[in-house]
Each structure stands twice: as C-alpha cells, then as structure tokens.
Batch of 3 targets.
Target 1
Amino acid sequence: MIGPGGTIGILGGGQLGWMISLEAQRMGYRTVVLDPSADCSASRIADKLLVASFDNETRCRELASKSDVVTLEFERVSHRIYEELEKEFTVHPPSYALLVIQDRVSQRVFIKANNVPQPEFSLISSARELDSASKEVGFPAILKVARGGYDGKNQARVTNIAELKAAWEGFGKERAILERLVNFQKEISVVLARTVEGEVRAFPVAENEHRDHILFLTVAPARVWASVQERAIEIATTLAHALNYVGVMAVEMFVEGDDVLVNEIAPRVHNSGHYTFGACATSQFEQHIRAVCGAPLGDVSMHGPAAMLNLLGDVWENGEPQWEKMFAEFPSARLFLYGKEANSARRKMGHVTFTGHESADAAAEAALRAYDILKG
Ligand code: AMP
C-alpha cells in the first residue's frame, strides 16, 4: 500500500481534483496536479501544480515521475499518453477503461457485450445509416456524437428523419449513436470503488435531477424500490469487474418501469457522489484515494438521508448569493465553492450538501428551498 506521506498525481485540477486533493492532504498524502489552467480549482491547495495541456507527453511523464500513483479526474485526457504512462508507472484506473468509456460507441458496444441493459441504440457512421438507424430505434430519439459529449453537449433530441439528418450534419457528420428517448421515472447513479484485488464497495444509490442536461439535485438514498437499488448496484459492479477497474467510478442509469438501463459510465469520482463528503463515513474522494493507493476500502454507510444542490453560474445572476440567509435557515448545510468565475449560467461553481434530515424528501425539500434563498 502507498501510505500517508506518499504522493498522488492527478490529471486534471478542476473541482474533482480539488476535492481529491483536500481529502488526500487531510490523510497526510501529497498531491501533484496537472491542468492547463494556472488558476484551476486545485491550484489553491495542490502541493505542486504543473500547468500543461493533457496532450503534453513530457509534462504528463513529469507528473508520473513525481508521483507514487497517477490517477485522473477528467476522462478526456489523451488515451495514448495515459497508456504509455501505464507501462512505466502505477496508474489507476486502467487505460482500458478510458479507451472503452471515452467513445460513446465503444461504451455502448461494451455494455451490450456484457449483457447489461441499456436503451436501444444504433450506430451512425455514414449518411446511408441514418435511415436504418431511425427504423431500428424509432422516434423520438437522441443523437449523440461518439466523442466529446458531456452535460448534454454534442447531443440532440430528434423526432423525425429530417431532424436527424439536419442534426447529424450540424455535428459535422461525425460518428454517432442514435438511441431511444427513454421515458424514465427517475435517473439514478451508483458510485462505487473497486480495488486491485477486485473488492467492490458501492455507496448508497443516488437519485439525480438534471435541468437543461446538467445535474441540479442529488438525493440519497434514491427514492426507488429496494429491488431497483440492488439491481443498479449489481449492474455497476458487473461493469466495474468487466473493465478490471481500480478506483472510484460512477454509472448513471434510467429507471423506466421495472427496468434499470445504463445511460453512461464515468471513470472517475462523480458529481452525483458529492453528497458522500459529509453524509457518509467515507467520502467518494477518500475512497478513490484508498483504492488507487491499495489501502483497504472505507465504510460506505450513511449517517442519514442527504441532498446535494449544484450551484451553477445562474445562482450569481442577481449578484452574490444570499449565503447568510441560507446558513441561518440550514445550520447543517455544507458549502463547497470551487474558486471559479461565474462567467456562464451553466458553469459548475460549487455545491451545498444537506444532512441531518429525517427523510430523503425532507433533505430534497431543504435543497430546493436553499436554491430559492440563495438566488434571492
Ligand atoms: P448524457 O450527456 O448522456 O449524460 O445525457 C445528459 C442527460 O440527458 C441525461 O442525464 C438525461 O437526462 C438525458 N438523456 C440522455 N440520454 C437519454 C435517453 N436515451 N433518453 C432520455 N433522456 C436522455
């Protein structure tokens, strides 16, 4: 095991890298972070920051040579460089997981190959396939470009073949998938950790509300049947083993009737797991550190129902949010601010977690009320 005193190298210094660093330092580890931006969130606390692009192989190697283990908080790093590092250094998660997940097409094919349920989909790699894909999947559907999509980027909802054609051409005729628009009752996610030995521990299933394709609210435990929670954890565990994964990963899913369908996998700590930082005995960030350092995994039990409210740039629209009012009304609210500029209404600026409520409903209500208070 890489014990406290060891150095963790992190590719990416956004809010996820910042929170990994926070927990790492609390536990006595050092962190070296590589990020293209000198004032990224983790720059505030990283022991060392390397300012470089993720395609800069020399600087990525420098990060690895200064670290006992290399990990990431951002999946769109160069797979080639990451795979090179893996040959010489201790690197978690495996490059194979990145290869599968970075591309929506290979991710869907991988999920299918492992007999895990997901929305019906069809590949589109040429204009000829638009017709057959739409017949296979039907409308309404969602077109998703294979690479570079997140938070609703590079995807479009289409209701007929003309719209599909226009959307695909608008995306530069890139390789894409067409998938059925799922009429879900809930979106949920499983955040789990897997060790080198293959031990898996999942946090309580989270329920997620997206607004405009971006996560707005997480409530945990998810308000779904126990059988749905068990099924979700089973699915995420199957995928973690199949990827030979090491570290924390997240699987986002749709609940449609009795079915649990995989939307996507994230090879890193996840926004829907932020509630664990305060609501569980071990946070997802500490759990990731434990897993990549080869330490025994921590206790995933929850102190009680929790909610997490994402603070996007829109909360700053009317000026500084009403912090004092929120703290006064919710003494247990835990605020995390990422040290960013609110230069867009969609930018993730921070989040607040709410704990100590008697039910998930009450925690969700507190988060929604706090949102209104903060916006004034
Ligand atoms: P993604 O970028 O794939 O995570 O998608 C962002 C959000 O779009 C999801 O959290 C869903 O709310 C919605 N979405 C994505 N794919 C589908 C689908 N096949 N059916 C219905 N909603 C979807």
Target 2
Amino acid sequence: MSRTDSTGFVAGYPLKAHNTFGLDVRAQWACRIERETQLMAAVRDPRAAGLPRLVLGGGSNVVLTGDFAGLVLLVALRGRRVVGEDADAVYVEAAAGEPWHEFVAWTLKQGLPGLENLALIPGTVGAAPIQNIGAYGLEMCERFASLRAVELASGETVELDAHDCAFGYRDSFFKREGRNRLVITSVTFRLPKAWQPRAGYADLARELASNGYAANGKQPDAQAIFDAVVAVRRAKLPDPLELGNAGSFFKNPVVSAEQFKALKKRQPDVVSYAQPDGRVKLAAGWLIDRCGWKGRAMGAAGVHERQALVLVNRGGASGAEVLALARAIQHDVLVRFGVELEIEPVCL
Ligand code: EPU
C-alpha cells in the first residue's frame, strides 16, 4: 500500500506506470514535483537524508532492475513559451515535465519549425538533454540553447550551455560526471529562422517520396516531415503504451577504420556510416538481426519483431530478465562480429 502525507511524500510507491518498460518495482519514497519549491523541500526532507535519489520524467530511458531504496522525484513541471529572438533564431523554453512529442507539435503550431525530425520520441523535455535524443538525421544538441537545473547538494539553480552539457552521440555530462547531481527544470531551444528540411535519412526519404516529395522536386515543409517521422516510427517502433520498451537498447557502436575494413571483407552488406574522425558507426540493429535475434524471446523479455535494436517487455518481465536477454545478445554479437555493444538506457 502507498501512503501520501501533506509534503507529497509517498512511501512504497509503485513505479510501473512511471517507466516505459512497465517494470513492476517500487520506490521506498516518491514525491511528485509540480513546482521548483517542492523540489528543494523534497530534497531537504529528513526522511530522504543520505538516501540515493532518482529523477524520473517519462521513465523512457531507464531499466529498473529492482525496488529503488531511495527517493524518486517525479518531475511534473509544466509550461512552454517563446522567450525571445535574435536575427537568426527564435528561442523557446519548456519545463522539464512537458511531454516531448506534445512540445514538438506545439512548436510547429506556433509556426516554429526545427524539431520535427524528433517527433514521437517518448519521454519528457527534461530527459531530452540527458541522452541527447536523436532521430532521422537530427540530434537535440543541434537545437539546444541552454537549460536550468537545481543542484541537489546546494539547492542552487544553475544555468548550463551546450558546452557545459558536453553532448555526444546518446551522451552528455548528465550521464557521466553530472549523474545524480542536478535536476533539470527547464530547457531552452534555439530554432533557426532560416529553416531547411532535413530529409536525407533513408527511411524518412522513402516515406516522403511515397507522399509525393522528392529531393530534387517538391520540398516537404516541417509538418510533412513531422507526419512522415510519425508514420515511420509507428511502422517500426513499438508504442510503449502497448508493449513496454525503452527505445533502442544499445548504442550504435563506433569502430576503427581497420576493424571496419576487416568486418566489411567478411560481411560485405554490413550497414555502416562513416564518421568525421575516420571511424565507422555500425547499425547495432543489423548486427543483432544477423545473429538471428529479431522476434526472439528469453522469458518475458523479447526482441522487437520489426527493429532488433529494441528490447520489449512481453508482459510481466523483470529488469533482470531484460538484462539477461541483453547480455545474451551482447555475447552473440561479440562472438560473431568482434563488436562490443554498449547498453544505452540507464540501468538501476
Ligand atoms: N536494421 C536491420 N535490422 C533491424 C534493425 C535495423 O537490418 O532489426 C538495419 C536497417 O535496415 C537500417 C539500419 O539497420 O539499414 C539502421 O536502422 P534504423 O534506420 O531503424 O536505425 P537505427 O540505427 O537502428 C537509430 C536510433 C533510433 C532512431 C533511428 C532513426 C540509436 C541507438 N538508435 O536506430 O533511436 O529512431 O536511428 O534515426 O542511435 C532510440 O534511441 O531509442 C531510437 C529509437
């Protein structure tokens, strides 16, 4: 049984509805944060003193392998607004608890394109910088201006720019040195006035072509790209409300030019993307698919049947089952291709 008191603290709080994998675990304490002042009160509450803390927005990038012996902060800060503009861009701020997809749709309704390639990504605005969400040829860091966060140790509000956030591919300061140190409260995006469609990603280009657009013909507007991204994602990726998952379970691995050459010799059809530094990114989904894992299951954890990079909860899976499946996949890919796959979501 969960019990709530006047401070908003709840003991033994069920987290199943707060993680997109649908893992059925509980938090020792949880507190829903609707205003910044509640955040500080929660952090300073004596019941949480010395306990680990976990910030959950949409819970779309986390694997909860057991009950959480600490305080879960359920960030539900809301609000979004245009905060300014200069000659080149319009600046839009959204509170951390805003659902990401609704926020993207809202920017387009305001006539502010720039985020459309990131349509339908599950989770909240506050989670977007943590793994630097990216899809269909765009990474969030390309539209990022700054963010505000509360430092858990001091209670101070701090502002971070892109340099402070040290964004990389599915990576940032918040996954490394900044882990568990800050709670993001709002993010400001820079949406360029000189908008250009970003329509080159293979799946997206195909979908746009089938809607009558062409690279050297009729150009899509931002809404057409938004609609095409939504269609591609719906066709390929499971809806977490129907089938628990955390999106891509592994990062696409980056290998040296030499390792790639050797691999390509053995596997001429390997899917790859040359990187600016000479290394080569491989499609983890392709590697996993080639190992025969697509659509397979181990216990209640499975590999999605249309995208092998996505692990799913077929119903009642535990975090341990999901991780056992992940380890088996990592093993097979390493043995067959000599490539190590790194798990992308945060595992707790
Ligand atoms: N592929 C297969 N079999 C599979 C899956 C993929 O052969 O089961 C091949 C595809 O045919 C394609 C290539 O692998 O040639 C890449 O597949 P896809 O375009 O679906 O993209 P991805 O590299 O698997 C990445 C992101 C996704 C993002 C898509 C589109 C990562 C870890 N994942 O996936 O992000 O939506 O590109 O941009 O970078 C997420 O992070 O949760 C996520 C879904």
Target 3
Amino acid sequence: MKPDCMILRLGELTLKGRNRRRFEKSVMSQIRHVFAAFPDLRYIPEYGRVYVELGGASFVEASAALQKVFGLTSFSPAYHAPLELEAIQELALQMMKALPKQPATFKVSVRRVNKSFPYDSQKMNVLVGGYVLQACPGLTVDVHHPEVELRVELREERALLYVEVIEGAGGFPLGTNGKALLMLSGGIDSPVAGWLAMRKGLELEAIHFHSYPYTSERAKEKVIELARQLSGYTHSMKLHLVPFTDVQTSIHRVYQDNLLVTLIRRAMYRIAEKVAEREGLDAIVTGESLGQVASQTLSSLNVIGRVVSLPTLQPLIMMDKQEIIRIAEKIGTFPISILPYEDCCSLFLPPSPSTNPNLRVVEKLEHSMDFLPELIEQAVRQTETIQIMFSENKATQHLF
Ligand code: ATP
Ligand code: MG
C-alpha cells in the first residue's frame, strides 16, 4: 500500500498566540527546506498540524527527511478514500492487514467534519470497526488502551484514514531560541550536545581548537565531517578553526603540573567567548558531562566556567555515557567520532590532572603568564572560518 498523504503534527502545544504562529511558520519553512527534493508536494496547514499531499512522492523517502525537522512531534502516513461507507470500510481493513505487526486490540475513531455525511461519528465507529472485526479473527476492540487506533476523518470531499504514528524529532524549530557557539571537539559528546541545542531551537556556529602539527590534518577533517553531519539539521553551519598550538605550548613551557588542563581549558573558553561575541552569538554550548573526567568535576567546571560571562550551556551535564552514545548513533555522528585521531586536549596531559582546582591559585598562575592575553588575541585573529553545507554525499565547503 502506498500512502498518498502525510499528516504532520507540530509540537509545543503550550505555546499560544503570536509565539505559536511564529513557531508554526518556522517549522513550515524547515519542512519546505527538507522537502526541496520533492517539488510536487501540496501543503494544507491546519491548527497544530499540516496535511501534505504526496503527489506520487515516496512516503519512506519523505519520512527520512522529516526526522531532521525540529518542532515536529509526530507524523503519519495517510490514505484517501471516496466519501462512501463501503470504500472507507475496505480501506480500513486493508490498512489494518498491512500493519507490520498484527495487534490484538484496536479502536476506530471517526471525526466527521463534513456534516452532510449520512452517518455520524458514533455510528461510523461501529460500522467501520465491525467490518474490520468480522474480517480479522482474534482482534478485539479496546476503547481505553488499544494497541492501535485507526483514525478516520470525514472531510469535505474525501475521507482520510491513518493508523501509524511515527515519532518526530520534537523540540523547537531551528533558530527560534537564538544563536550559540558550539565547542566542537572530535569526541562523542560535543556533537550530541550540539544536536540537543539545535533541537531546543538554537542556531549554531561551531568552534574547534587544533594544535597542528601535534594534532593531524586528519583530526581537523574529522571535525569538519562532524560539522557536516550536524549541518544536515540546519541549512549550513559556520565552523571556526582556531590555531591553538602557540597558546598550548607556551603555557606548557612554563607550567607542567596538575593544573595544566584547567589553564588550557580556561584559555579555550576565553577564545570561544571572543569569537562568540564577534559573531553576535549569545551562549556557548559544550559537551561536558558531570564527573566524566578530571576537568568535569563540579569544582573543575566551576573554575573553568567562571572565566567567561556568556551563559555556557551543557546539554549533557546530567546524562550517562550510554544515553549520549544512543543519541550519537541516532544522529549519525558516532561512527565519525570513534575514528582514532587525537584531540588537542589529550596533548601534554599531566600524570594526575587536578579534580579540585583552586581558583585563586589558577588566577595567580595566569597572572604570571604575561604572554597569554596577546596569544589569545592572536589565536582569535588567526581563526579561519569555513562554511559547511550539507549534502547527502559530501560537505561542500568554501573558505571565507
Ligand atoms: P567530547 O567527547 O565532546 O570531546 P569529552 O568528554 O572528551 O568531550 P573534554 O575533552 O574534557 O570532554 O571536553 C569537554 C568539552 O570541551 C567538549 O565536549 C567540547 O565541547 C569542548 N572541547 C574539548 N576539546 C575541544 C576542541 N579541541 N575544540 C573545541 N571544543 C573542545
Ligand atoms: Mg574530548
């Protein structure tokens, strides 16, 4: 069976008035964007949902594209029938038989929009339900907790039937909650943090620190590839590549002890904040998760985080690694993240990085490094920015 229509449900039902209209307008624009390859679709918006007539397009292909639309809670393949009892009954039965797994219980819910249809919705529930029941031995009706619910809408010209409900990405439409800078390493966590931030409606630019030649060209390519994967959820993404070698080696030259990681990470945050402000971004997003490594204990996060005044958002802070990996697999970043190339954070690691750094001591150390402010400015100036465009096969990038 080939669906001829889709029903898309838009999320965040708590939104009202102007916010709701803005929300729906943004979801619609994103839907049209991911459906650019399907020019024959026809959209019919209604309150809280959109009917999309497929015009011959494949539902399977269209539904894969829909998983990239934030603000969409669920969607259903749907089928049209003429406004005639027998046609509706027959289609209902075919749809039930075509389900991937045969349910033990079901119910029919009819909504009669077209009041000139001869049977009201109660009567139709019985007429359609009864027809399906007599053809499906073993199936029973459960009006409270049915395994599947077959919905029938009696519209002005045709009936519309649907039974499957597929979960969408949820969240807020892209860009409706502002813009932020994602600190993107080559690891598993930060791309997931980026995806969760985008799902919450944040438009992202990404920043990556590399310490060439200590980190390889391949490590940089891996990050470009991760940004490409994330840019599939938006239109395109700016990636700022920061040459971090001078900062890192200069700190290491004068200090090699257990606060080294804290010092290096504070320098990263300082650079990230300067780039964020230059680009007009209102927050920094990172992939930190409480307790995961020495630099992610509460006191490390405290000493590192207070170096910037922009809000730092850490979507993974309370999540377990397993939960993070599950999302990484779902959004397609996991296979890229586990490629072996080094991240600059793993360079010059002291034998036992501090899990409980002292802010006063750290500040005093920084004060003694009078070369640091200029090296930080220089890193910002020398940052290279590339625009990552998503395409199914390969990112197309061009240098600014
Ligand atoms: P990830 O898997 O994201 O690398 P992690 O668990 O390895 O995270 P850290 O290496 O301590 O943790 O990094 C914490 C966060 O700092 C990262 O999630 C990322 O947001 C940021 N970060 C680390 N290294 C870099 C880098 N080279 N460039 C940009 N951001 C980085
Ligand atoms: Mg890392």
